[in-house]
Amino acid sequence: MTRIVAGTVGGRALTVPPSGTRPTSERVREAMFSRLEHLGVVDGARVLDLFAGSGALGLEAASRGAAEVLLVDAARQAADIARRNAADLGLDRVVRVLAEPAERTAARIAADGGPGDGYDLVLIDPPYDLDPDVLNRVLADLAVPGVLAPDAVVVLEQARRGAPFVWPDALVELSAKRYGDTVVHYAERRQAEEGPTET
User: Which CDD domains match (predicted)?
Assistant: First the structure.
């Protein structure tokens, strides 16, 4: 059974699609959000959860105080279940669900210049067999100015033997943590180097 780990609805169960998704384990989610809360990027955050499946990651963020969460999954069944999970948990006031490919959403957000001050936290848990070119396009779109807030963090979960990917120049990896066969990568926006000051 998949449950929310902590926060206002900690311990509540989630419905997961019968096939086609691979919910992040509670152990990995607990470690991931402990790190994110230490970085100060959850409470009050604007969150984008790509390849959301049941919505476990984004709903965990909402339970822990995120202000706005967008769950995106191409599978209609997964999106419907994520929407139902949000409603059942009473989190539908801050959670929206979009049933479309993550790469299409990322491209549109990049073309629009991002939402307001940008996303504070992006969670990416793609299928293990996702074409790496698709993942690299998604990462490149996230790096477009305006998509991410200045102190944003991007989290990418993949199999230990997952296809290689490339962080765009605008993102720098903070660390990568392995949990069994899962590796979680953390990256942040690269801060612009200050030019020389005139005297």
Answer: AdoMet_MTases
